[in-house]
């Protein structure tokens, strides 16, 4: 090996919500050297930016008004059961501290109901400040504004759907042509930047700033509703200013309805987390995958559990060893590619940790698309310290913990628990790694 | 009140649509009824090969000759439904030389243009062919889009005055003595454009002549009038890859066997197939080994297939038929020819004929023969024009190509739309309204989706087959929602919700057979998008059984967090 090994105390693999939380928690717990190595974009770019903790029980009961009541009764092996309810609370307050005013919902244990771009409502525990005035569990009337060139969100249809879902207020939808957007397939970031920079756009009554032009376009349809919702395109870096200006000119609260990929609220959360990582002194190496590992001596005489000595990072063809005392695996699930499969089986590709699954791939799914899907629960089975376990119930490695969607035994899509599990397990894996690394 | 028509065609596959067009063009008054959407049966579940005839050049020369003739006709009249990919019959070292020679001779005798190629020459055409491929025969195979072809036939029939009724199931044949004089249909409550029937209602349609073109279901229909038609349905699997590993049709050059052909189709390549007799064309096992066999066997010809991503698999049933008394054991030995069963001559029951067997490639010739028969029965003297008159969308295709710049249709998306729409492009795509992409995988824009909706109403599966929207890599995960949104405000929210669920379910069905690797990751992403982001799995608007069970029938909004300070 020609290259000198890079040395750290805690090395986190994977820079999604779980990995970022783990690295921040490790740094927060006083570890000197924390490094995060991550490969491709994380799932946050797909995700809506909402922080779900638990919306439904694994048996489908819900929507739960208070997720904490149900957390007590989760089945053995569920990631929340592994870390325990107190850790979930600690992790959420840790998250609240990191995101500050950018998120709301921390004032209560109860879930909020948020309108989705498909016109349904869903329970969630924390929501971006941009979404806060739009809750469906708030009974003020609302106007939804859609954009002709954003076919994902049909505002009049979403409004009708919300009414069918029994919302406690009147909701109307209108569809506008977005001032300043000339291409039919402009990216969502184009809309956001137009508003961020308040670019000058041409309108029927002459040139105007993009924010003012948008308000004017809405005002033609506005009937004095106390709040007005837009698809989640209202600015990126200056999103607060954009919403503020729109609210001032309209004389109503302004909110965003979370959207599908690429999701600006998800991207904003990711940016916020990476700023926090930088501030916490975490070294981040991105765009490179971890491709393998080497073990060292057994952890003490007579112990059968191996230790990871170093992992190997592929830097554009060069194999660079990265050594640390403790490792956190946060490479995501099937979407993040922390869990992979072929026709023969399902595997965790870096360390070969065990992923329980049926032998026959026709048992990986059920016929009802929204049924109890075995594939949605694929992932590692950890002990209470979040160390992945082998078939004998022993930790695969003494110094490897796992967090986030790479863990199995829960269906985050059905339960609405994705971000919550990532935060809780990332927090526990990071904190525990820091504690044991001297 | 009954409805009376001159000729009633049962079945909206390629055969039925072809017959309806032919008869309507001859000036007859035609009604076609189909229980699903057009192509609901075998036509929507076939391999997409426009046969050159090469496949039958050894075993069945009459079919081979008919194929090459019709292949040439379809290039003329249905240019926007076919792609002239060319094809290769590829010989591996273990495949018999004698068969290769017979194939070459057979093609020559049937008038199928061929060229013998060395292994190296074949790999120059298709670089992913295995290194040990020995040699190949080049033939004019092509790819055909059965959806577009059927829809174009139905459209033209309509233009010539036909009534095309989908989601109308024949539940009885009306027979009096030895005469069949019509049918009773039940209009479905499923989505679809129902210009005539009220969902759930039944209707009697009487006719001078009834043509039973229900393919694998022809026996069931015939039985409704106590007639016996012994269809031997035989299933075949097809596995769709996410990209085109090959740009020409690749056939294995050996006597017969499963998993011996790859057809490039639009953005995908389709592997096929098997041949297994089944008892019920609506209910047969779809099995893992069949998918595995496609990948494993065809990797012998194109090795990269073993690692490639498949996006779904689907099965179709061949409407094979044998005249009484033949009792062939192996379904692969049953003739691919078609049969016109004149029940008057055969069973002494007048007013009805059944058509069974055949191939999509020769649908037009079959339709012509049947239309001739119907005209003879009805004493109508009119000649067939379907071999000369282009289908709607295929008129003036050369001029269209020249006109592409003029419409500003050079962008990749516009090119794809234009390919699908053919000469209808200008009508459909020229709009003053914004025209964003609805389906990014296949490059389908709002104008195309709207055009399809205007033809087929709320049935999004019918929109899908017309446009290819939701048929790419994401299998609808990203575009099902936007497609459904396009139905609003013409259709109300509840209808839109049901239409979305139907399409989403249909897309899931085929993906189940591709759930590993990239496609399993895609499935999880789709699931997360629909269940996590949108909560469509537990939508309070669907107060279904699960909602009742959990007591969330009426959701108590006030019990939830309304925001700080609210
Ligand atoms: C469409 C969608 C919508 C969602 N919506 C919500 C929602 O509304 N609310 C909610 O609470 N949750 C939601 N979730 C779930 C939630 O986003 C995920 O559960 C959570 O983000 C998972 O985070 P993670 O950090 O474990 O994994 P990921 O975000 O997948 O991150 C894994 C990271 O590891 C990297 N990686 C993988 N392999 C390697 C390697 N070998 N070397 C280095 N790095 C590697 C990946 O490139 C990636 O950056 C949604 C998920 C999806 C897919
Ligand atoms: C696996 C496979 C691969 C094939 N590949 C090719 C190929 O590559 N090239 C080629 O040329 N040919 C191919 N074929 C053959 C070709 O697909 C068929 O010959 C052709 O599509 C048959 O069309 P059809 O209209 O006769 O039958 P269908 O398309 O089955 O039409 C019959 C219709 O009748 C309807 N129907 C049934 N019952 C009722 C009722 N009670 N009331 C109303 N309607 C009813 C059905 O819904 C159906 O739509 C393939 C076939 C299979 C199975």
From TrEMBL, chain B:
FAD dependent oxidoreductase domain span: 7-363
Assembly and oligomerization: Composed of a catalytic GlpA/B dimer and of membrane bound GlpC.
Molecular functions (GO terms): flavin adenine dinucleotide binding; FMN binding; glycerol-3-phosphate dehydrogenase (quinone) activity
Family of this protein: Belongs to the FAD-dependent glycerol-3-phosphate dehydrogenase family.
NCBIfam families in alphabetical order: glycerol3P_GlpA (TIGR03377), PRK11101.1 (NF008313)
Keyword rRNA processing: no
Gene Ontology terms: biological process: glycerol catabolic process; glycerol-3-phosphate metabolic process
Residues annotated as domain BFD-like [2Fe-2S]-binding: 437-487
PROSITE patterns associated with the record: FAD_G3PDH_2
One annotated Gene Ontology cellular component of this protein: plasma membrane
Residue span of region Disordered: 536-566
Catalytic reaction equation(s): a quinone + sn-glycerol 3-phosphate = dihydroxyacetone phosphate + a quinol
Gene assigned in the entry: glpA
EC numbers, comma separated: 1.1.5.3
Keywords recorded for this protein, A-Z: Cell membrane, FAD, Flavoprotein, Membrane, Oxidoreductase
Cofactor: FMN; FAD
Principal cellular location given in the protein's record: membrane
Pathway: Polyol metabolism; glycerol degradation via glycerol kinase pathway; glycerone phosphate from sn-glycerol 3-phosphate (anaerobic route): step 1/1
Name of protein: glycerol-3-phosphate dehydrogenase
Cellular localisation: Cell membrane
A Pfam family matched in the record: Fer2_BFD
Membrane-related topology note: Peripheral membrane protein
PANTHER family (UniProt xref): GLYCEROL-3-PHOSPHATE DEHYDROGENASE (PTHR11985), GLYCEROL-3-PHOSPHATE DEHYDROGENASE, MITOCHONDRIAL (PTHR11985:SF15)
